[in-house]
Amino acid sequence: MIDIHAHVLPGVDDGVVDLEESLAMLKNYEQAGVRAVFATSHVAPKRGYANTRERLEKGLERVRHAAQEANIDVTLYLGAEIDNHPQLANVLQQAPSLNDSRVVLLDFGMKQADIEEVCYELSLLDYTVIVAHPERYFYITMEAIRRLKKQGVLMQVSAPHLIKRGSKDAQKIARKMLKEGLIDFVASDAHRAKGMPGDVMKKAYQYVQKKAGTVQAERLFSENAKSWLLGRD
Ligand SMILES: [Fe+2]
């Protein structure tokens, strides 16, 4: 499995607080069979997370080194979870995409946003957007999700919502999206090591396998990440 959304870098956002917690998180990933993780810290200047590419790269190197010392066999890739912003194109120039691809993970948050318009504008700049946890946006509809998918936008659903955790509304949308084949990636969006993101991913994998089959589970937990984000590796 590959987790494309995790707040595994210490001290740069509301994710893990120190290196010890990063390593505890990575150990849980390793035990559960997650082989690669994208460090997607918030880039959200309006919320006080003005992370630059340089800062996140530095944090990633630190965690990579510590993981190597601790013999933890999980590959880390650089990424970011970028908040929607009036000057998003400028923000994207300072923020990392996912593993230096043209694919960016965007958080549209709880303030109603014109997701279709934003993704269209970014497509003109040659970006492909992964919408982070669309099931959480109270204003989203299944119809809007279907339209976005037709537009070429990719969808990341959070694993907890497939295993009866988090808000009931989000769980309902996540299940519907799975049923209709509208999910591209399932990821943990882990913030804390004690949430055991590896175990959460494993349970969600088993759920998807039961409901949609092994081929689909492999796609959502691994194959799509490989083809979209690790193409050059
Ligand atoms: Fe997140």
Provide a descriptive summary of the structure in words.
Helices cover 43% and strands 15% of the residues. The strands form 2 sheets. Strands 3-5-6-7-8-9 form a 6-stranded parallel beta sheet. The longest helix is centred in the N-terminal third of the chain and has 17 residues, at 53-69. The mean pLDDT is 97. The protein has one domain (2-229): Metal-dependent hydrolases (TIM Barrel, Alpha-Beta Barrel). The two termini are 16 Å apart. Helix 1 (19-32) packs parallel to helix 7 and helix 7 (197-212) packs across helix 8. It has helices at residues 19-32, 53-69, 88-94, 115-124, 142-150, 168-179, 197-212, 214-229, and strands at residues 2-6, 36-39, 42-43, 75-78, 81-83, 103-107, 128-132, 154-158, 185-187. It is of the alpha/beta class and 233 residues long. The protein contains 8 helices and 9 strands. The chain is globular, with a radius of gyration of 16 Å. Bound molecules: fe (ii) ion (FE2). Fe (ii) ion (FE2) binds at residues 5, 7, 81, 132, 189.
Strands across the major sheet, in which order?
3-5-6-7-8-9
* CATH topology tier name: TIM Barrel
The tally of helices reads 8
The CATH superfamily label reads Metal-dependent hydrolases
Small-molecule components bound: fe (ii) ion
What CATH architecture would you give? Alpha-Beta Barrel
Radius of gyration over alpha carbons?
Answer: 16 Å
Strand percentage: 15-25%
Quick one: how many beta strands?
Answer: 9
Percentage of residues assigned to helices: 40-55%
Unreliable runs:
none
Shape: globular
Largest sheet: 6 strands, parallel
**What would CATH call the class?**
Alpha Beta
